[in-house]
Amino acid sequence: MIQCVQKGTKYFSRGLMAVLIVLLCACEEFCEESNRTAAVVNFYSAETELPAATRIDAIQGLGNDSVLFLNTSLQSALLPLKPDADTTAYIIRTSMVAANDVTVTETDTLIIVYTRHTGFISSECGCAGFAEITIAYAAGRRIIDSVTVSNPNVRTVSYRSQVINAENIRLYCR
Fold first, then answer.
1. Using CA atoms, how far apart are residues 145 and 15, in angstroms rounded to an integer?
2. Which end of the chain, N or C, is less packed with Cβ atoms under 10 Å?
3. Domain ranges, residue 114
4. Which has the closest alpha carbon to 72: 49, 51, 93, 42?
């Protein structure tokens, strides 16, 4: 009886391995696309209206503890949009030393309101979420002078291959 069970287990595991190999080899392609939707935000000088790197202490999603950018100079940023909401907000913080050697921290909140929809990418990747920005604005307006939506259509981005789509939002900073 024990030999019969051992033989059955041996044949079962060989059959299972064969099925797995066939399934892995039968796949035509793997999905190389990302299904993450992120707005491309570029920073501009409020004075010259030209692209300008802006010193940022942190950009953090409102309502979570993840910090996307920390102590850096940015000219462009990818800000993910929530796939289960129609609004995403980010806290943008910067600090500077005033004339009396006191560090002053300034904080603004960038709010992005959008309409979500899904679209078909390919048979390998399936569907992904897309967004159309209806409005973007800044609350606080200490760092950000004004906000312009330059392209409302937010597409998926590939973080691995560093593919960045067209600019969606312009932040004019002081």
1. 66
2. N
3. 36-173
4. 93
Give the chain's length: 174
Q: Per the domain annotation, does 30 fall within a domain?
A: no
In a domain, 62, yes or no: yes
Domain count, the chain: 1
Other beta carbons within 10 angstroms of residue 47's beta carbon come to 11
Q: How buried is residue 55: exposed, middle or buried, by Cβ count under 10 Å (0-12/13-18/19+)?
A: middle
Residue 8 belongs to some domain of the structure: no
Q: Say what percent of the chain tops pLDDT 70.
A: 76
Are 170 and 39 in contact, with CB atoms under 8 Å apart? no
Q: Does 2 fall in a domain?
A: no
The three-state secondary structure class of 141 is coil
